[in-house]
Structure formats: C-alpha cells, structure tokens
Amino acid sequence: MSLEIEKVVFAGHTHHGIHFLGRILARAGMLAHREVTWLPPYGPIILAGNAYGTVILSTVEVGSPVVEVPDALVALNHHAFEKFNGRLKAGGLLLFDTSEVQAEDDQLRDDVRAIGVPSREISPPEPGLITPSLSLLGAYVACSKMVNLELTIDSLKEILRQEGLLTSSEFRINRRALERGAAYVGEKRYMFSRYRYAIFTG
C-alpha cells in the first residue's frame, strides 16, 4: 500500500470547539478505514484562552501523534494564523476563517494553498453546537484525499450521540454548516493566484 498521510492542525479560541472538530475528523478517518491519531487540546493551553489539536490520517500505521510540520492548518483566529502559518509544510493547505482572521496579501505564503472561508456568512443563522467552525471542517474535507463529506456527517452524528446532544435540529444545523463549507470550496469561490504547489489533488 502506498503511503498517503495528512497531518492536520486545528487552532483557535477555546470556544471554537477545537476538541469537537478533532474528534469528528478522527472518527471520520476511522470510518474511512484510515490509521488515525488524535491529540486533543490539554489543560494549560485551554486555560490560556487559545487551543490547538492535531489529527493524523494515514494509509499506514502512524508512529507518533505529534505534528511539528502540518500538511494542513485550520486557523480559526488570528493568533492561530500567526502561530502556525510559518510551520505549515510547503505545498500544504491553509484554511482560515475570514470572519476572524484579517490576513493581508503579503502574509499569505506563496508556497501553500490558502483558502479564506467566511464562516459567519455561510453558516446557518440558527445557533448550533460549533456551527461556524464546522464550516471550516467541511472546507477541509472537500480538499482532503483521506475522508469525504458523507463519512464526516456520519461522524458528526455519532459524536453528538456520544455527548447526549443528538436532536434533529442540532444535527440538521451542524450538518448544514459542514455542507456549506464543503460547497464553498467546491464552487471555487476563492483566489488561487498565489498558489504554486499541490498535495491535495486526486
């Protein structure tokens, strides 16, 4: 089996649901029969007000859950963008929430694929568990070779059930956020002018 791997960092404020995003993606990876590690945010980081977690999806066994150089970064606030953007692998994927990250053109690297996603604009207006953040997860899934949207939706449903939060309205709202994030990327409503390398091609 050929080696394919995606090392993903989710980073932002604690209220962005970093913990849930990682769990949902990790579970989707398991449903896709991938080797998976998930390293959630831990105490000192959470208490500081910002948090990050990592998920590794691979076609072969993963040696360590630690991610020093991510293939993909999902930045949900400006602190996350500044902290991890420089670590992102050349040819990697940067997804950032334009509702909270004001990235100037000269801050976007020439050697990564950068996609700004306006989470508040595209997310359902009804309040959900972590609705705006889920649109960024949907955008990532649309770019990923390791999982797909259908399995991610199945994973969302399972995580909500585990937390005792599975109601028809909660699932519908959060599912819609995932779908809208994926559709935003699928419709190519973003600029590619600075992008030169690709690792997330089929």
**Overall helicity:** 25-40%
Q: Note the total helix count.
A: 7
**CATH architecture level-2 label:** 3-Layer(aba) Sandwich
Mean pLDDT, to the nearest integer, reads 86
Which structural class fits the helix and strand makeup?
Answer: alpha/beta
Spatial order of the strands in the main sheet? 2-3-1-4-5-6
Question: Which regions contain 5 or more consecutive residues with pLDDT less than 50?
Answer: 189-202
Question: How many domain units?
Answer: 1
Indicate the radius of gyration in whole angstroms: 16 Å
**The CATH homology group name:** Pyruvate-ferredoxin oxidoreductase, PFOR, domain III
Distance between the termini: 17 Å
Backbone shape: globular
Task: Explain what this protein looks like in three dimensions.
- The chain is of the alpha/beta class and 202 residues long.
- The protein has a single domain (5-186), classed as Pyruvate-ferredoxin oxidoreductase, PFOR, domain III (Pyruvate-ferredoxin Oxidoreductase, domain 3, 3-Layer(aba) Sandwich), CATH 3.40.920.
- 38% of the residues lie in helices and 18% in strands.
- It is built from seven helices and six strands; from the N terminus they run βαβαββαββαααα.
- The protein has helices at residues 18-31, 43-47, 78-84, 119-122, 131-143, 149-162, 168-186; strands spanning 5-13, 35-39, 50-58, 72-75, 93-97, 113-117.
- The protein has a six-stranded mixed sheet, with helices on both faces.
- Strand 4 (72-75), helix 3 and strand 5 (93-97) form a beta-alpha-beta unit.
- It is globular, with a radius of gyration of 16 Å.
- The chain starts with a strand and ends in a 16-residue tail after the last helix.
